[in-house]
Design a protein that fits this description.
The protein has one domain: Transferase(Phosphotransferase), domain 1. Helices cover 27% and strands 33% of the residues. The strands form three sheets. Strands 1-2-3-4-6-5 form a six-stranded antiparallel β-sheet.
Amino acid sequence: MALTSGTRFGPFEIAEAIGAGGMGEVYRATDTKLGRDVAIKILPSALAEDPDRFARFEREAKLLATLNHAHIGASYGLDEHEGTQFIVMELIEGETLEEKLKGGPLPVEDALRIGLQISEALEAAHEKSVVHRDLKPANVMMTRDGVVSEPLLRADIRLDGP
């Protein structure tokens, strides 16, 4: 289900597509009630009809709601609009670590700082029995000020939980 700019999902207005993967499509949207930009992950109807995929999508949202850490993208809610399931999450702006590495090797200080932040995020997730099974530079976001924020709800992320 490709959404176009201006499409409304309840109080959310779609701005643009920002990612896609095996478990959904991710869009930049505006929360018109709170006046903030968010990311919305939509479970395509073809996947929603598969009970296992739907359960996994719902489980992912619930697991992420248990996490609260500076280096993990926040989950704001799980909702449904006209039969389409979606997760509302923090919009993390910046570049992926993969994009940053295209500029060449990182200085040692930057590599250590980034590695520490990733480790802290993973530790927080592990403390809640959440295991990130697809950790790679393409799935690590770097904000404009160089802070790592792992958007665990990216379309290609898998989680394990209790």
